[in-house]
Design brief:
- The protein is of the alpha/beta class and 423 residues long.
- It has two domains: 140 residues, Aspartate Aminotransferase, domain 1; 239 residues, Aspartate Aminotransferase, domain 2, CATH 3.40.640.
- Helices cover 40% and strands 16% of the residues.
- It contains 15 helices and 17 strands.
- The strands form five sheets. A seven-stranded mixed sheet has the order 4-12-11-10-9-5-6, sandwiched between helices. A four-stranded antiparallel sheet has the order 13-14-17-16, covered by helices on one side.
- Helix 2 packs antiparallel against helix 10, helix 10 crosses helix 12 and helix 12 packs parallel to helix 15.
- The longest helix has 27 residues.
- The protein is globular, with a radius of gyration of 22 Å.
- The two termini are 31 Å apart.
- The mean pLDDT is 96.
Length: 423
C-alpha cells in the first residue's frame, strides 16, 4: 500500500500507541470519538502548566505569556481553517457548548413563523441546540434527509426546503457515524441565495480533509481539537461581522469585542496551548519536498500539503478495508462502499456482523486489543433513519493517519474469526 510518509516515525510520536493488550499492540480504531495525542502536544500542555500558568490581562510575566499564547493559538487555528483573521476564532469547552451558546444568540434574531433546516446526517450537537431554540421561538424546523442505501446527504432536496423564511441551515461537513462527506460549498450557496446563514459541524471532517472556511463561504464552523490530535477543546469560527453584531450571553465586566465576548469564564489555557501544538503537529506532516522548494513556506501552505497527504493515505486505508470486508461473511458496511467513490467518504465505517449485537462485537474486538465504538455515537438521527436506534446501533470503526495496513489486516482477520465462530 502506498505510504506517503514514514509511519514508524509518526507512530513513535504517540505514547498511547505503544500500549499492549494481552501481549499484543493495541489497535486504536476509536479515532472518531477522539484521536490519540502526540508528545509535542503533551509537552506544550505540561510546559504551560509548569512555567506560564496564569490568567490573562495582568501586568506580569506569566500573564503576558498567556496573552501571547492566546493570540498565537488563535492564529494557528485561523490558519488551519483558513479564517481571514485570528479574531474569528473562539475557544470553548467543546463544540456542543459553543453551538448551544451561539444557537441562543442567533435565536434572538428569529421571529415566530421563521424556519430553519437541519439534517438527519448530523451529530446531535448540530441538531438539538437548534431544535430547542426553534421551539422556544415558534420557529419551524425542516429536515434534510439522506439516502439510506449509501448514507449520502440528499442535497438535491435542499432547494425545496429553503424559502424567504429560512434563517439558518445547520449542516455537517462529514458524518461522524458513517463517514459520508457533504458538499458544504454547494449547500452554502443554496442557503445564502435564500438569505439564510450556515452553521457547519466540521468536527469529524477536520482530521481527514482540508478545511477552508473562505472557500466554503460558511458563516460559522465548529470543530473539536481532540478529534485532530489535540486536547479536549472546542473551536468556533465565525465571520467577524456576525460575531460583532450578535449579542453574546456573558457576564458584564468581560470584553465586549470578539472573540473575547464569546468566551465565557476563564479558558483552559493549557488546552489552548495543546491546540496550538496540534496544528503545528499537522503542519509537520507536510511533504519534505515543500521545505526544499519553499524554505519560507507558511504554516497554511504546510497544512495544505499535510492534509493532502493524509487524505491520500487514508483513502488507501479505506480501500484496503472495503476490499477485505467483502470477504467477511455476514459483515455489512453502511454508507459508501464503492471503491470509485472513496473521495466522498472518510475512513469511518459503521458495520454490523450477523450473530452479534453491536455491544457484543465491540467487546469481542476489545478483548483482542482492537478498540472500536458501538451504539449511536450521538448520531441519533442517523440511527433513527436506518431503523437501528432501538437495536443497539452499529459498531463504528475509524481509521486515521497513524493506523497501519497491518492493523487493517488484523481487524479483518479477527472479524473473519468471529464470523466463522457463529456460522
Amino acid at each position: 500500500m502506498n505510504n506517503p510518509f514514514e509511519l514508524t516515525t509518526i507512530r513513535a510520536q504517540f505514547p498511547a500507541l505503544q500500549q499492549e493488550v494481552n501481549g499484543r499492540p493495541a489497535v486504536f480504531l476509536d479515532g472518531p470519538g477522539g484521536t490519540q495525542v502526540p508528545e509535542m502536544v503533551i509537552d506544550a500542555m505540561s510546559g504551560y502548566l509548569r512555567r506560564d500558568n496564569s490568567n490573562q490581562g495582568g501586568h506580569f510575566l506569566t500573564s503576558q505569556r498567556t496573552d501571547i499564547l492566546l493570540y498565537e493559538a488563535r492564529l494557528a487555528l485561523a490558519e488551519l481553517l483558513n479564517a481571514s483573521r485570528p479574531e474569528e476564532i473562539v475557544f470553548g469547552p467543546n463544540m456542543t457548548s459553543l453551538t448551544f451558546q451561539l444557537s441562543r444568540a442567533l435565536a434572538r434574531t428569529w421571529q415566530a413563523g421563521d424556519e430553519i433546516v437541519v439534517t438527519r446526517l448530523d451529530h446531535d450537537a448540530n441538531i438539538s441546540p437548534w431544535l430547542l431554540a426553534a421551539a422556544e421561538h415558534d420557529v419551524t424546523v425542516r429536515w434534510l434527509d439522506f439516502h439510506p442505501e449509501d448514507c449520502s446527504l440528499a442535497l438535491e432536496q435542499l432547494p425545496d426546503l429553503l424559502s424567504e423564511k429560512t434563517r439558518l441551515l445547520a449542516i455537517t461537513h462529514a458524518s461522524n457515524a458513517v463517514g459520508s462527506i457533504v458538499n458544504v460549498q454547494r449547500a452554502t450557496q443554496l442557503a445564502h441565495a435564500a438569505g439564510a446563514l450556515v452553521y457547519v459541524d466540521a468536527v469529524h471532517y477536520t482530521p481527514h480533509g482540508l478545511v477552508d472556511v473562505q472557500a466554503l463561504d460558511c458563516d460559522f464552523l465548529a470543530s473539536s481539537t481532540y478529534k485532530y490530535y489535540g486536547p479536549h477543546l472546542g473551536v468556533l469560527y465565525g465571520r467577524y461581522d456576525h460575531l460583532e453584531r450578535l449579542t453574546a450571553y456573558k457576564v458584564r465586566p468581560a470584553s465586549g469585542q470578539p472573540p473575547g465576548k464569546w468566551e465565557t469564564g476563564t479558558p483552559s489555557f493549557e488546552s489552548i496551548a495543546g491546540a496550538r501544538a496540534a496544528v503545528d503537529y499537522l503542519a509537520s506532516l507536510a511533504a519534505p519536498e515543500l521545505a526544499t522548494a519553499r524554505p519560507a513556506a507558511s504554516r497554511r501552505e504546510k497544512l495544505v500539503s499535510a492534509m493532502n497527504r493524509i487524505q491520500l493515505y487514508e483513502m488507501a486505508i479505506t480501500e484496503r478495508f472495503l476490499r477485505g470486508a467483502t470477504a467477511v461473511p455476514g459483515l455489512r458496511v453502511y454508507g459508501i462502499t464503492d471503491i470509485e467513490r472513496l473521495a466522498e467518504r472518510t475512513p469511518t465505517f459503521a458495520v454490523s456482523l450477523t450473530g452479534y449485537t453491536p455491544g457484543e462485537l465491540a467487546a469481542r474486538l476489545g478483548e483482542q486489543g482492537i478498540f472500536v465504538w458501538d451504539g449511536h455515537y450521538y448520531a441519533v438521527a442517523v440511527m433513527e433513519r436506518l431503523g437501528l436506534l432501538d437495536k443497539g446501533g452499529l459498531v463504528r470503526i475509524g481509521f486515521v493517519h497513524y493506523n497501519s495496513a497491518e492493523e487493517v489486516d488484523r481487524l479483518l482477520n479477527r472479524l473473519q474469526q468471529l464470523a466463522a465462530s457463529r456460522a
